[in-house]
Structures are given as C-alpha cells and as structure tokens.
C-alpha cells in the first residue's frame, strides 16, 4: 500500500488555507483544495479526505502532490490544458478581417425595395 507524503504547513500557509477554506468570496474549487490540504496536514489519508469532502481520492492525491511541490501557488490555479484546435486558423481570421476592413461588398438591394424599384 502506498503511503501519501506528509504535508507540513507554516503558520502563514495555515492562515491562508484557513482563509480560503472558510471565505465566501473565494472560488469553490480553491476552498475545496484548501480543505484538502488542511486535512492532509492532520495526517489523514487521501481516502479519508476524499470521503469527507466528497471527491475522489486521486483528486486529493493530485492536490497534495502539487502543494508539496509548489506550495500555495500550486493549488491556486488549474494547470493549463491544450483545448481544442480552432476551426479557423489565425491566418484565415486575419484575412477575413482585412477583407472586411478594406473591401466594400457589391451587394444588390433585397426585399420590398427591389420590388418597388422594378415596377414600371
């Protein structure tokens, strides 16, 4: 059985995590992560923390590792994800913008006006 790494907090880290976990103006994700780290500092296992907070134990382990490696900044933000590739390339967008700025379309009037203009 794997044993999770021990989390040791400084007084300043403990105060900040407590502020995040109980504050109403912070994002819910940040509050949840702060609670995970506070419970991990009390030597609870990932499984215990997960069942107490209502998250998967792997999630607890991820944030524990990130906190140990990076400290408070490690749990403040999610990692950047690549996301989906854009359907239109940046070059194509630039071309379209240039065309709309510099060229005037040759349009025919449509609708009722056309019908009135074509009357004898």
Word description of this protein:
This protein is mostly helical and 120 residues long. The protein has a domain at 11-76. It contains 7 helices and no strands. Helix 1 (11-22) crosses helix 2, helix 2 crosses helix 4 (57-70) and helix 3 (46-53) packs across helix 4. It is elongated, with a radius of gyration of 28 Å. The model has no long low-confidence stretch (mean pLDDT 87).
- Report, as a whole number of angstroms, the end-to-end distance: 92 Å
Compute the number of helices: 7
Integer average pLDDT? 87
Instruction: Describe the global form.
Output: elongated
- Largest sheet report: none
Query: How many strand segments?
Result: 0
The helix content is: 55-70%
Layout of secondary structure:
Blueprint (H helix, E strand, L loop, with lengths): L10 H12 L5 H14 L4 H8 L3 H14 L1 H5 L13 H13 L9 H6 L3
Helix pairs in contact: 1-2, 2-3, 2-4, 3-4
List keywords for this structure.
120 residues; mainly alpha
Summarize the structure.
By secondary structure, the protein is mainly alpha-helical.
